[in-house]
Amino acid sequence: MVLVLTDAVEECLRHNGSVAAWRRAATRDVRIDGVDIPAGSKLLIVTSSANHDERAFADADLFDIRRENANDHLTFGYGSHQCMGKNLARMEIQVFLQELTRRLPHLRLAEQRFSYVANTSFRGPEHLWVEWDPAKNPERSTPAVLEKTSPVRIGEPSKRDIARTMQVEQVAPAADGIVRLRLVSPDGRDLARWTPGSHVDVECGDTGLSRQYSLCGDPADARAFEIAVLREAESRGGSAWMHGAVRPGDRLHVSAPRNHFRLDESARRLIFIAGGIGITPIAAMARRARELGIDYALHYSGRRRAAMALVDELAGLHGERLHLHVSEEGGRNDIAALLREPRAGTLVYACGPARMLDALADASAHWPEGSLRVEHFSTSKGKLDPTREHGFEVELADSGLVVPVRADQTLLAALRAANIDVRSDCEEGLCGSCEVAVLAGRIDHRDLVLTPAERAEGTRMMACCSRACDARLLLGL
What we know:
- By secondary structure, the chain is of the alpha+beta class.
- The chain has helices spanning 2-16, 47-50, 86-103, 138-141, 238-244, 279-292, 311-318, 335-338, 354-363, 411-417, 452-457; strands spanning 22-25, 30-32, 35-37, 42-45, 108-109, 130-131, 164-175, 178-184, 198-203, 210-214, 224-230, 251-254, 258-259, 269-275, 295-302, 322-326, 346-352, 372-376, 392-396, 402-405, 435-440, 443-444, 460-462, 467-468, 472-475.
- The chain is built from eleven helices and 25 strands.
- It has a five-stranded parallel β-sheet, with helices on both faces. Strands 20-19-25-21-23 form a five-stranded mixed β-sheet.
- The two termini are 30 Å apart.
């Protein structure tokens, strides 16, 4: 209950916080997103607009208490200008909601027309009419309800704690060794909309394992999340559990969708390339390109047709735009020929085994920077070998705190040991969720997320795997 309430508090603060905007003055000349702002300019910083930025919050106008990044809101400001009383405010809202739902669970809004406080900085209704039946108050039948206390969480919730309970509506084979699961809300309500390339984390029962799976269904289907799971021969337990234990009607803990492999819908042409189970995020992307009327082609490779998921569905959706390359039938995707001539405005999206992605990187080396965008299954690049590492320090710019990072420790682990909450997913340098800003110092990049140009900028790093070249880094935390 505490976690649900703290998640709700963050989403309330993001979606419709009481602080709508604040005034500032530029202390020096600055250029932001192509706009010159001279020193002395008076600014109105509309944080409520930033809190509904679709680039930061998927389906931003939807109120979703399971939104995994709700606490990225700017209602309390940012960095050294954050409100000093932010955690007290969080506690006050949490306690209020706890008491209100406990003592007046039958409270409901009355019909009314809302009018709002006439103020450009603070937002709130002038009146809020509610109604309830005092005879139904819980203390009338259970006086002990007034003595009950609940724990209060201090600060914002950890992003690792935010999950929702979902029910397995359907389990069906998608191909040899691949099972497709359709997950719905137990109460039948619509789910948060998601964007192509998104994935969710699924807790594998009592195994203690959590695994990531790309969403492969229709993003327009608000009723369900769909995932396809390959049974890995060398499974660490996750895929074996999904295949052997999950049945229709089961309930699973599932994270909110998050997207580190986002489709650029402004592209003039798209080439989608998938290998094996890598079709899962690519399928949703190709569906979206079809809906938008973008020129595209879909290339899907596999060893055996019977082991290739979603083939019939893809053929029905994409027709001649779908190109199947089946090894046992003599088919092969000639990547070098496919990417021989760069095309202006064309982006290539790919997901599949490392060998295929390496071939794509080589074949597209002469294309404009950023043309190839990939999602990896696994990597050993960021694996930590303490005998070959050196320790270093990171200074956190917002607080001045200095955190040591041992040779046998990742930056992510060191930050968490210092009670600095940094979100992470794969912890292998594949997904980009643990990115932190770097203000000074040289970075030893070991991820598979950043482009060469982004690495050269030296302004961000993946905390789960990358390290410092020297003895110290200054982080924007």
